Structure to design on (708 residues):
């Protein structure tokens, strides 16, 4: 990559979204820790009447981290990476600057309305698409503004060839747009009947069809929020931080188009042994296995980028974040297909193994990339050294410990409960009542909540480190070329 | 071709969209009509049941309880007959859930009673020692929202042709008629309950959330 000092990049919008990533990360993960403790200690449900129960809070956790923390991270990195790989500054276009700021402030308003409406119980019940129609409209507008920003910046670019990261950001934009619109097709009941709650709506699809559309969305929201844009980040941050070129262009090409082609088929693996058509279930199962190829393609490409430079792991904690993130990506994309095998799914479905799987992906892969990415951006955005290397190291190890505690306890919990549900005595009768299979989980749920707390403490350390970097760390004169300077 | 696409963002975006869009079409559309067909004997929800279903959704009951019995002996022994697609034809949204923190409820109406639900919703631990379910005392105080429930029934009848008012199906009629029918249905449930507050409210023309919820749960068979 050539030196980019000639262009004066404008990081105003990137900084805004960095702040919202940190704040919403703390909010979303704090709610996560609360509901984790609620499972282990159910009295915690009863403090705030209807507003404090697990059922009300859980969507605030899932949507808070997916659409608060992660989407903010996606936006922050886009408004940073986009300019740099397209070799054009936001400052060159008043229009794009306005769109970026408008997108941010509308996003904040939508997030606020979404949180309040979920607390009030205004929910469509569909996972990761709980928001009612007024919030949906707000989300669509924010997303369209992002599209204007992406294609606007591409329109005025100097670098004609789109870098890999831009492929993935474009795919994120298109994928989420398509999925979100079709899964949230709903009819507001007030406008048809003229009475009742004006927020309320009813789904366009019923029963098995609704389930099909929901999990086509639900699974691929994971693809296009938790996978695709995160790959965009690692393809930029790892080479920049390490000074190593990407291992193979052909492998990145194969992985990109492979991922696009295969991912969308796999949603049906959430519906194995349900009432959706059998052939859909089989297809989903098969494509889930095939999905290992493009997923590992990216991960291997990333890991081999470090070939011969593994020593950097010792000196640079940001490289640790990136390398562990892609390792967790490999783990997670192997675990998912295993769970999509029908006979494994018969055991795993409805158990804690599923949230366990989700979290080794989100905490290890998504969280580490956003945290590590913003650490890389900070010295360049604020023109200061990262405040404390020791703190970065401590955060890394604390969070890694937290993740390991989280997924190991959930694996054990899930498999234990799944085995107990199907266990029979010598006469063929069910061996355990349902409550037996709940009580046995208490120690694992406690361990999970503690692991989650470790991760949350790490996020606070990150927030403090970034805050100090932005305000009082030692100034740097020249933009660092590769490894981020840290005190 | 790929090199060319990387220099032509418009065609690149079109290419990506085509590659990601068709899987949904191929998997969702072919059996769409068939999957929308109700099973013989499946009826749409009454207005009171819909109000209860909305209470169920508002409080995220589906985050912990599934409504999908898979075709395994261990599940049919525990919960009853495995679920069939046509049984869900009037479920908007579907409420299959994704995690059984509590037991499946698809046929809970077959083995739990009004009385059981009343005690359990007030204090789950008193009925099932070791239960981790929250207490839902507030449902005995908040009023059911019949208007929104009627609005939903009216909407699905009008927009999706859900067969209210047909022979053997629940009557919908005007809001006042629907309200009257809801009160008759609620009366039978209230008669089976002990809570004085709920009984008094019913006498004063007010149906509490818990009554609507029990009407919904009793109808899950």
């Amino acid at each position: 990559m050539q030196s980019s000092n000639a262009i004066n990049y404008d990081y105003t919008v990137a900084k805004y979204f960095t702040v919202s990533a940190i704040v919403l990360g703390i909010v979303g993960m704090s709610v996560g820790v609360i509901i984790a403790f609620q499972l282990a200690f159910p009295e915690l449900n009863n403090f705030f009447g209807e507003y404090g129960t697990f059922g009300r809070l859980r969507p605030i956790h899932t949507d808070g981290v997916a659409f608060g923390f992660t989407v903010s991270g996606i936006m922050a990195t886009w408004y940073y990476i986009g300019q740099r790989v397209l070799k054009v500054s936001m400052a060159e276009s008043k229009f794009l600057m306005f769109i970026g700021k408008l997108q941010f402030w509308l996003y904040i308003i939508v997030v606020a309305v979404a949180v309040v409406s979920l607390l009030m119980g205004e929910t469509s019940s569909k996972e990761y698409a709980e928001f009612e129609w007024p919030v949906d409209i707000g989300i669509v507008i924010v997303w369209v503004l992002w599209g204007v920003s992406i294609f606007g910046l591409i329109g005025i670019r100097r670098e004609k060839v789109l870098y890999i990261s831009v492929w993935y950001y474009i795919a994120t934009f298109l994928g989420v747009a398509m999925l979100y619109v079709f899964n949230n097709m709903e009819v507001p009941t007030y406008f048809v009947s003229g009475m009742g709650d004006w927020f309320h709506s009813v789904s366009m699809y019923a029963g098995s069809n609704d389930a099909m559309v929901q999990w086509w969305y639900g699974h691929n929201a994971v693809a296009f929020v938790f996978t695709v844009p995160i790959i965009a980040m690692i393809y930029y941050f790892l080479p920049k931080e390490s000074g190593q070129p990407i291992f193979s262009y052909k492998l990145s090409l194969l992985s990109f188009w492979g991922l696009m082609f295969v991912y969308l088929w796999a949603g049906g693996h959430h519906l194995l042994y349900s009432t959706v058509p059998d052939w859909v279930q089989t297809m989903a199962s098969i494509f889930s296995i095939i999905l290992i190829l493009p997923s590992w393609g990216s991960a291997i490409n990333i890991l081999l980028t470090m070939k011969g430079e593994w020593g950097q792991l010792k000196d640079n904690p940001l490289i640790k974040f990136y390398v562990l993130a892609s390792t967790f990506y490999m783990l997670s994309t192997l675990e998912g297909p295993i769970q999509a095998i029908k006979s494994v799914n018969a055991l795993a479905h409805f158990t804690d193994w599923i949230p366990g799987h989700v979290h080794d992906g989100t905490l290890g892969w998504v969280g580490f990339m956003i945290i590590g990415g913003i650490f890389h951006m900070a010295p360049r955005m604020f023109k200061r050294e990262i405040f404390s290397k020791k703190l970065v190291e401590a955060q890394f190890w604390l969070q890694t410990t937290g993740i390991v505690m989280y997924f190991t306890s959930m694996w054990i919990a899930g498999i234990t409960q799944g085995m107990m549900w199907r266990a029979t005595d010598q006469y063929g009768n069910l061996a355990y009542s349902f409550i037996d299979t709940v009580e046995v989980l208490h120690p694992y749920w406690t361990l999970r909540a503690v692991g989650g707390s470790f991760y949350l403490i790490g996020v606070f350390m990150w927030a403090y480190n970034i805050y100090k970097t932005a305000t009082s760390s030692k100034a740097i004169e020249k933009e660092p070329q590769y490894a981020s300077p840290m005190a | 071709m790929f090199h060319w696409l990387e220099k032509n963002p418009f065609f690149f975006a079109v290419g990506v969209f085509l590659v990601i869009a068709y899987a949904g079409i191929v998997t969702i559309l072919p059996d769409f009509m068939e999957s929308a067909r109700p099973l013989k004997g499946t009826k749409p929800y009454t207005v009171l049941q819909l109000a209860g279903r909305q209470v169920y959704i508002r409080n995220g009951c589906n985050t912990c309880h599934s409504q999908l019995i898979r075709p395994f002996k261990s599940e049919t022994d525990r919960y009853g007959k495995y679920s069939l697609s046509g049984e869900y034809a009037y479920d908007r949204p579907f409420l299959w859930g994704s995690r059984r923190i509590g037991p499946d409820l698809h046929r809970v109406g077959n083995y739990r009673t009004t009385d059981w639900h009343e005690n359990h919703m007030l204090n789950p631990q008193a009925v099932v020692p070791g239960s981790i379910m929250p207490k839902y005392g507030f449902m005995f105080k908040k009023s059911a929202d019949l208007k929104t429930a009627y609005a939903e029934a009216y909407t699905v009848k009008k927009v999706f042709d859900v067969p209210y008012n047909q022979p053997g199906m629940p009557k919908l009629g005007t809001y006042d008629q629907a309200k009257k029918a809801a009160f008759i249905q609620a009366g039978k449930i209230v008669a089976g309950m002990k809570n004085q507050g709920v009984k008094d409210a019913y006498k004063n023309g007010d149906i509490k959330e818990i009554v609507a919820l029990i009407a919904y749960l009793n109808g899950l068979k």
